[in-house]
Design brief:
Length: about 290
């Protein structure tokens, strides 16, 4: 496994692979890898000749009061895990390498970036879309892999790729969970022993919503209110949002139909966690991702 720190060297490796007719898969990450990330790597390994994993804690997607400085980092641990999962190249650029001067060009997706997590994290998805666009231009992957836990991010990246005709296939991979349902996240390490049991309320609320939907409930407002009440009642947990939107454009819906996203976010103590339930609702019934 190679560790590459410069854009020029990364482009050289990709160019050599492309000349040999090899397919390239990219897994963009901010490091401190967990099983969810590794599931992306394993999927990329099965589907590509060359697997590239980028590790870059992107300052553009952190607000002034967010946790950029204390975001968990352990590069050596990450590299060991990636070698075990047969990654070919770790792209590990510095902030100065990615942003040698203040940016004048950014990627905006109005209407999709300001909803859900975007409401409480202004500018976050501008930073996400901009850095992912840069990574796509640097690595030129045939496929790029994203987790379904970050559903809004995946929807925004898919729309960016479609709008700008970027020749990369976006592959989304199911959420990986702890035994008690908590979605794997790098931020789970922030949870104290006392907070950890309460963090599962997001998953429990989603499962209650799933049961109601399976029983035939299609009113988005009724489901949303139930989820909001369940999460808000949990000790030590502060609800950020619980929303039901179309998965294609992230717009609110009144009744469940088509591709639907039930997304939740909450603070457990000081730790902000997200989770979601994705489904395809038709006249014949509902299928959950």
């Amino acid at each position: 496994m190679q560790t590459i720190e410069t854009i020029a060297d990364m482009r050289t490796i990709v160019a050599n692979a492309k000349r040999q007719g090899k397919s390239v898969g990219l897994v963009p990450t901010m490091g401190y890898l967990h099983e969810g990330h590794l599931r992306l790597v394993d999927t990329a390994r099965r589907e590509n000749d060359l697997v590239v994993v980028s590790i870059f804690v992107n300052p553009l997607q952190f607000g002034p009061n967010e946790d950029f400085a204390r975001y968990p980092r352990d590069t050596e641990r990450d590299k060991t895990l990636l070698a075990e999962h047969q990654c070919d190249v770790v792209f590990l650029p510095s902030v100065e390498e990615m942003y040698p001067r203040p940016l004048k060009t950014v990627i905006e997706l109005p209407g999709m970036s300001e909803t859900l997590c975007g409401r409480s994290r202004p500018g976050h998805f501008r930073g996400v879309a901009t850095v992912v666009s840069k990574l796509f231009h640097i690595v030129q992957p045939d496929k790029a892999y994203f987790g379904k836990k970050d559903a809004q991010q995946a929807a925004i990246i898919a729309r960016m790729v479609d709008d700008l005709n970027i020749p990369v296939e976006i592959v989304t991979v199911p959420i990986v969970r702890e035994a008690d349902g908590l979605a794997k996240s790098s931020r789970n390490v922030y949870l104290t022993a006392e907070e950890r049991p309460h963090a599962t309320v997001l998953y429990r609320a989603l499962m209650e919503a799933k049961a109601k939907i399976e029983a035939g409930e299609r009113c988005a407002d009724k489901i949303r209110q139930m989820v909001q009440a369940r999460i808000s009642a949990e000790p030590g947990v502060t609800l950020d949002y619980a929303e039901i939107v179309s998965l294609t454009d992230l717009k609110p819906i009144e009744r469940l139909s088509g591709r639907v996203l039930l997304a939740v976010a909450a603070y457990v103590g000081k730790t902000r966690l997200i989770d979601n339930l994705q489904m395809d609702v038709t006249e014949d019934g509902v299928t959950f991702d």
